[in-house]
Amino acid sequence: MRLLVAGIGNIFLGDDGFGVVVADRLRRETWPDGVVVADFGIRGVHLAYELAGGAYDAAILVDAVARGGSAGTLYAIDAAADREEGGSAMDAHNLTPAVVIAWLRRLGAGCRVLVVGCEPASLEELMELSPAVAGSVEGAVHLVRDLVAELTGAVRCA
Question: Starting from the edge strand earliest in sequence, which strands make up the sheet with 112-118, in order?
Fold first, then answer.
């Protein structure tokens, strides 16, 4: 299993930097062979090409996700199932994972995509996460660990 864990977001827009913060935390950990953790920031096109290139069997995208819950709420979303249910997988800031996923489908990429999202409190110009979202970073790290273990069949490490 070749798996990409991609942090996404703009660190200059408050809680939009959630994915980047989580990716930074995840990069400090040891992962099974074939698992790559990277910060893609606002480079959605780069991410789409990376996933469309066939280098990965699956991807976990980590980002701020506005779905109407309380700030700091974490979501684990299977992008294909969410689309079938009429969801958008992401909110509408910049080049979103939803747009990247749609682009992948148009390119014929067969990569499975999961999203670990966090409900933002604010996407205003600010270089720090809100307290509610900052408090969800560790929970997102655990959620990503669980998903990696599930996808790779690896034993989950604490």
Answer: 35-41, 3-8, 58-64, 112-118, 74-78
Annotated domain spans of the chain: 3-152
- Please say whether the beta carbons of 89 and 83 come within 8 A: yes
pTM: 0.83
For residues 127 and 97, the answer to whether their CB atoms sit within 8 Å is: no
104: part of which helix (H) or strand (E)? Answer: helix 97-107
CA dihedral 15, 40, 47, 70 (to 10 degrees): -20
pLDDT in tens, 89-138: 443 344 555 666 665 666 555 678 899 999 999 999 999 999 999 999 99
Task: Tokens 């979303």: give the residue.
Answer: 77
Fold (topology level) of 3-152 = Rossmann fold (3.40.50)
Q: What pLDDT sits at residue 149?
A: 94
CB 35 within 8 A of CB 148: yes
Amino acid 51: pLDDT: 82
Q: How far is CA 74 from CA 1, 42, 56, 68, 109, in A?
A: 25, 21, 24, 11, 27
